Each structure stands twice: as structure tokens, then as C-alpha cells.
Amino acid sequence: MEANKIVFIGSGNLATNLAKAFFDRQIKISQIYSRTEESARLLAEAVGADYTTSLAQVITDADIYIVALKDDVVAQLMPQIIAGKEGALMVHTSGSLPLSIWPDSVKRKGVFYPLQTFSKQRKVEFDSIPVFIECNNPDDNSLLKELAACITNQVCELSSEKRRQLHLAAVFACNFTNHMYALAEKILKQYNIPFDYILPLIEETEKKVHYLSPHQAQTGPAVRYDEKVINKHLELLSGEPEMQEIYQLLSKSIHRL
């Protein structure tokens, strides 16, 4: 794509993976901003960019600013983020923030939302990660599509409302599921059983939904509401009232569905 001067506002999990994906495809990153010097420096070094820990020192002549911050921080820092950058394309990466989070003074505004779970410690392959685009004008919409197409084969347009609904589903599918892994790990540690023992089970559960609907793939005592098994599990959780409640709620939900 045509060379554009890109700045990342943020150096967290998403920013780190996205900036590195751009860098791997020879898309130049001019500058990284983070309030933490180590975080800004490490990412800047990884992608051959300058860095700053001051929003006042962020360059104002970039073409695209990619804001990858926590939702509440975007709103809090908005005046500083947009100051002096008239004419640039301002883009956020949130699944839950609408396009309208950008104020009227921002004439070129967009969303660049990769739907994936990101961690700094693990590099993901972007080729099959869907990136959802939203923009307030056709030219910038084409620009963001072209930018996304440099890193993935799945580029889709999606409205703020549909993206918010997608993000809700993603929280159930990813964040809540991972929390179940964490609770399982806690149980296993309590009984000195290695977490590795359940990795094949986790892998097969994930594979099944590529071929069956999640509804069809559901197994376990809650499907048939086997009260003997359920009560034995609840007894094992007698010292963990919160986990007992989670177990009961999920079991009832599975059975009803």
C-alpha cells in the first residue's frame, strides 16, 4: 500500500501484536506512545520506531494515529490525543467503543478492530484474524481496508452496533472461557494434579466447534442434569462458595439450553 506515516498511541497487548504485524510486512511505524517508558521503548525497538511517554511530544504530522488504549482511557485522554492533528485519520481499536467516540472536530475518524485475544508474550499469526473496519468517509474506508489487507485475509465492514454485539459474544467465547481454565487450574493445584493433564481435553473441545455447533458439541453431567455427579462436585467445592455458585449457574444454564 502507499506509504503512510503511522503512530501508535498505546503499547499494550493489542498494540504490540498489531505494530509487529505491520513491521513484519514492511509497513513503517514512526512513533510509539506509552505512559510507561519501558513498554514504549521495547515496542519501539521491536518495530524500528521512535517513542515518547508524553502525549504532548507525539508527532503531529502523521497520516494515521492508531489508538490502542483501554476504553475509559481513550475518553479521558481524548483532548490530548487529538490536539494538533487536524487532517490526520484517527482510528481506535476497541470492540465496544462506537465510531462516535471521536468528537465532531475530528474530520477523519475510523475503527480498526482485530477480533482476537492478544498477549505480549505470544505472537499471533494475523493471516486469518478478522479485522473489522468502520469509517466516516469512503476514501478512508478504502485506506483502512487496504491497510488491514496487508496483514489478514479477512477484512470486514461492521457498524458500531454490530461490533458491540460481536464484542459481547467474544467476551463469552474467550474471556469467560479462559476464566474457566483458570478456575480449573486452581482446582488442580489444590489436589496437586498437573494442568497438562486436561490440555488434550481443552484442545478437542476447541476443535469440535469447527465441525459441530456448540449446542451439538456440549457434553457433561449438566446436559442430562445428573444430580448425583453434580452434588458430588458441589461437595468438593464446599470451601469455595463463589465457585459453587458459578458451577450451579452454569449447570442450570447448560441444562436449559
From TrEMBL:
Positions of the DUF2520 domain: 129-254
Domain Pyrroline-5-carboxylate reductase catalytic N-terminal: 5-90
Stored InterPro entries: 6-PGluconate_DH-like_C_sf, DUF2520, NAD(P)-bd_dom_sf, P5C_Rdtase_cat_N, TM1727-like_C_sf
PANTHER family listed in its UniProt record: CONSERVED HYPOTHETICAL ALANINE AND LEUCINE RICH PROTEIN
Protein's UniProt name: DUF2520 domain-containing protein
Species: Bacteroides sedimenti
